[in-house]
Amino acid sequence: MKTESLSGATREAFLGLLDDPTPQVRKALLAHFVTLGQPAVQFLQEVAHGSHRILARHALWYLDEIKFSDPVAEFLGFIRSLNYELETGALLLSRTVSPTLDVAACCMALDQIADRCRELITPPATVREQCRIVNRVLFHEWGFRGNVENYTDPLNSLLDQVLLRRKGIPLTLSTVYLLIAERLGLELEPVGLPGHFIVGCFTEKKPFFIDPFDGGIFLETDEVFALLRANKIVPKSTDLMPTPIREVLCRNCRNLVNHYKAGGDSDHAKLFASFVEEFDATYERHTT
């Protein structure tokens, strides 16, 4: 839905400045948004739910700064937009639990990890070689790991808390891995296995997989199938297909439903169950 309160010229001017990193520009633009109030919020929400990944991230930052947005409404709007982008979606999801989440700090944390990887990557390097560098930085230098001691802690499923505590579950550690890879220009994909979550690379002659929950171990196709069989799951070739971002975020919500229930927090369990229902309803509306 377009924001009628802002003229086309004003909208274009804001869009042209939204990703400007200059402190003076950001301060002035923030002051304009605060003065405009709700029309500015509606404009920023529209951009945050749009298909332009970079502008969406900046719009989310401004929304966080002016504190005018309703995090639950924001995430529902994102779900209904069908413009699914992993980083924006994961941060919006986290804001439903922590409305004062510092979006810029989360993005900066990911940027710092990616910057360190760039320092160590010597071109030309294959995707697999670059992933080895990501493993070294993420799991050894930064110390990210699977939270095997308290797997059902809901904080394991919230991106900001995973970045802060450097531990999570397979889905969120895979999310961190993918967001770093994206910054490095690596074409990796989320792979939602039955009962587990890994990262896949399908750009080389033979696909290979990475398990961030297990320290970034590399897996070949037969090894992934063996992992499934070990968990009493009959593997299918479709299990290795890339998982759509919509399903990654919906599965994140389902995990939170289960983990909040396990912790006796029925209110948050109901909230994330409503997000799962909205993902399903939105998908059904646009596929039938």
UniProtKB/TrEMBL annotation:
Highest taxon in the source lineage: Bacteria
Coiled-coil intervals: none
Domain Protein SirB1 N-terminal as annotated: residue spans: 107-253
Entry-linked InterPro entries: SirB1_N
Entry similarity comment: Belongs to the UPF0162 family.
Any single Pfam family the record assigns to this protein: Transglut_core2
Name under which the protein is recorded: Protein SirB1 N-terminal domain-containing protein
Organism of this sequence: Opitutus terrae (strain DSM 11246 / JCM 15787 / PB90-1)
